[in-house]
Amino acid sequence: MNGDAVPFEAEIQRLNAAIRGRLIDVAFIGIGENGHLAFNDPPADFEIEDPYIVVELDEACRLQQVGEGWFASLAEVSTRAISMSIRQILKSRMIVCTVPDARKQDAVYMALNAPISSEAPCSILRRHPNCTLFLDYPAAGRILVRG
Predict the structure, then answer these.
(1) Which residues of 32-52 are buried (b: 16+ CB within 10 A; e: fewer)?
(2) d(CA 101, CA 143)
(3) Of 25, 35, 44, 60, which residue is least crowded by CB atoms under 10 Å?
């Protein structure tokens, strides 16, 4: 994937042509602080069939990129990104979702407990028959049972 392609649309066409009709064994994805799933920020489009799409990044998602050290300032973070669509992610035989850091504990709670909706994109993972969440202790902070 060439995330710096100009225009994005040409790269999307190339990616969609390469993946369309193919079975994906494993999707490796992440959940964002705002509950986004692979950059599908709320409200995410659960219906689009295209495998790859251009998404608009909300401010919370962009601030997360700065907070994680990927960018020095908000001004450096793009407002758009290429992402695998929610439908394409769910077509994968297996989903491996890695979620580190205490900043994501609300999103982990959302993934496991929020009503399944486009306002909580990560909640859709509960509809997949073979999804595994890998969390560190800080990310699991709201769901750990302490004795």
Answers:
(1) bbbbbbbbbbbebebeeebbb
(2) 14
(3) 25
Domain 8-135 indexed as CATH 3.40.50.1360: yes
pLDDT at 75 over 90: yes
Residue 35 parent element (H or E): none
- Identify the three-state secondary structure at position 143: coil
Computed over every residue of the chain, the mean pLDDT equals: 92
| Phi, psi angles (nearest 5°) of residue 15 | -65, -45
Query: Distance of CA 48 to CAs 3, 38, 52, 86, 97, Å?
Result: 20, 15, 10, 8, 21
Q: Note the pLDDT tens digit of each residue in 81-132.
A: 889 999 999 999 999 999 999 999 999 999 999 999 999 999 999 999 999 9
| Nearest Cα to Cα of residue 80 among 44, 54, 50, 118 | 54
pTM, two decimal places: 0.88
For residue 119, give the 3-state DSSP assignment: coil
**Domain residue ranges of the chain, discontinuous segments joined by +:** 8-135
